[in-house]
Amino acid sequence: MIAYFSLYKSDDEKYAGGLLIINENGIPVSFKYTEPVTPSEIQKIIYGDNIKNYLAYEILRNEDLFKPYDVDIVFVDDNDLLNYVVTDKILVYISELSLSRSFEIKENEGVIPLHDNKSLKFYASKVVDSNILKRIKYIIDKYDIFEPFGRLKEALIYICSKRED
Q: Which domain of life is it from (predicted)?
């Protein structure tokens, strides 16, 4: 299974994290999220610019988040998470390059050609082996690898905008 993780910060400084687990065809099999959290003033002072990374760490280190699914790749939309979140899962930050480049891999980063003269740039939290590369290539060939982030962001915006009754 593949997962997508994102941490959303609303305009009123509420944070919500979400994990969307999908099957090999891009169909959701699980969606877990945190209720919106508003950091206290002392947390903002103590953590400073790292508050988002701290919250992501607190969420992703919870192994129950991934149960009962065998998730081996977690795509993230924030490169900082690779340095601040410690998990046995491989975290992979992906971004789209607007030009076509050839296939190149260096331990935990690389470029994979896409279609329409674009490329996928990735950075991983661990060394990427041939099995992980095959999985990423399979996903690219099967569906838009970036699209689940859009669904995840919409869900987190909705969660943060719910009115308390």
A: Bacteria
CA dist., res. 44 & res. 38, Å (int): 10
Torsional sign, CA 96, 97, 100, 102: negative
Answer yes or no: CATH 3.30.2170.10 is held by domain 2-161.
yes
The structure tokens listed for 50 are 């790292």
End-to-end CA distance of the chain: 36
Buried-state track 127-158, b at ≥16 Cβ within 10 A, e below 16 = ebeeebeebbeebbeeeebeebbebbeebbee
What are the structural domain ranges in the chain? 2-161
Write the DSSP assignment of the chain as a string of letters: -EEEEEEEE-TTS-EEEEEEEE-TTS-EEEEEEPPPB---HHHHHHHGGGHHHHHHHHHHT-GGGTTTS---EEEES-TTHHHH---SSEEEEEEEESS----EEETTEEEEE-STT-EEEEEESS---HHHHHHHHHHHHHS-TTHHHHHHHHHHHHHHHPPP-
pLDDT bin (cut points 50, 70, 90) of residue 165 is: very low
Cis, peptide link before residue 68, omega less than 30° from 0: yes
Taking the complete model, does pTM exceed 0.85, yes or no? Answer: yes
